[in-house]
Amino acid sequence: MKKELIIEWKHVGEDLDTTCERCHDTGTALKAVISEITTILEMEGVSVRLVETVLPATAVEESNSLLFNGVPIEELLEGVEVISTPCASCACITCEEDTECRALRYSGEDYEAIPPELIGRAVARALEME
């Protein structure tokens, strides 16, 4: 039976072009990683499916999150912590001045956009759990 890796990307805004800057950068990195790994994983009998969940502006605290087969990236990768940091582009979307958006802290560094390296590690970890 063929295995499937479902990656869900949650963000505010209707699509990649209308989301906040950090979600845009996360989405761009995610699509690049998927493009790189799909052929390799399919050769191993694993299909990859991207699910894009558009959140209402009122759910900005859930925005910029990635789930791998239903498991959030912060639960897959040891040492990853969810933080919130001010996000001017989310403030434009929510029409609220002091809007904060999800970010990740890993190895002492804060990542407003989820980088390809962490996405790749989360893919590998999610597949190990199968």
Strand-residue proportion: 25-35%
- How far the N terminus sits from the C terminus, by CA atoms, comes to 13 Å
Sheet with most strands: 4 strands, mixed
Low-confidence segments, given as residue ranges, are none
Number of domains: 1
* Strand numbers in spatial order across the main sheet: 2-1-3-4
User: Counting H and I runs of at least 4 residues, what is the number of helices?
Assistant: 4
The assigned structural class equals alpha+beta
Number of strands: 7
H and E order: EHEEEHEHEEH
- Regarding quaternary structure, what we see is single chain
Mean of all residue-level pLDDT scores = 86
Helical fraction equals: 25-40%
Supply Rg.
Answer: 15 Å
Shape: globular
Note down, in words, how this protein is organized.
This protein has 130 residues and is an alpha+beta fold. It has one domain (3-128). The chain has four helices and seven strands, in the order E-H-E-E-E-H-E-H-E-E-H. The strands form two sheets. The protein has a four-stranded mixed sheet with strand order 2-1-3-4. Strands 5-6-7 form a three-stranded antiparallel sheet. Strand 6 and strand 7 form a beta hairpin. The radius of gyration is 15 Å and the shape is globular. It starts with a strand and ends with a helix. The mean pLDDT is 86.
